[in-house]
Amino acid sequence: MSRILLPTGTQVGRTMIALTSTLISLSQQVGRLKLVCDQITAGGVTPELMEIGQDVNGDALLPIGTGATLYSNIQSIKSSLDGMLAMLATMDRGL
Fold first, then answer.
1. What is the per-residue pLDDT across 40-92, written as a single tens digit (0 to 9) for each?
2. pTM (two decimals)
3. pLDDT digits (tens, 9 = 90+) for 36-52
4. What is the 3-state secondary structure (H, E, C) of 36-59?
5. Torsion angle (degrees, nearest 10) of CA 48, 42, 73, 35
6. Which residues on neighbouring strands pair with residue 62, listed in sequence order?
7. Closest by Cα among 60, 25, 64 to 40
8. Three-class DSSP labels, 16-28
9. Which phi and psi angles does 51 have, rounded to 5°?
10. If 0-12 CB within 10 Å is exposed, 13-18 middle and 19+ buried, where does residue 78 land?
């Protein structure tokens, strides 16, 4: 991702910089969460392995029947955050 250069002396610039920082942090956290879920579920092939009774390591212990929904939601959140960061990257105008 390219560096976002915004005018820090304006309300818009300060807010965009804060938003960008928050989105980067969230994207990194969701990325780490997805990696853990991928390890438990063999890359999402068997999301029920995160559920009680099948989660042998106790890493997730989700209620029965919710593993696939959670895995899908994590994928959607990650994709959305990645899209937002890509959109913000286009604002690199060197202002």
1. 999 999 999 999 999 989 999 999 999 999 999 999 999 999 998 888 777 65
2. 0.80
3. 999 999 999 999 999 99
4. HHHHHHCCCCCHHHHECCCCCCCC
5. 130
6. 51
7. 60
8. HHHHHHHHHHHHH
9. -95, 155
10. middle
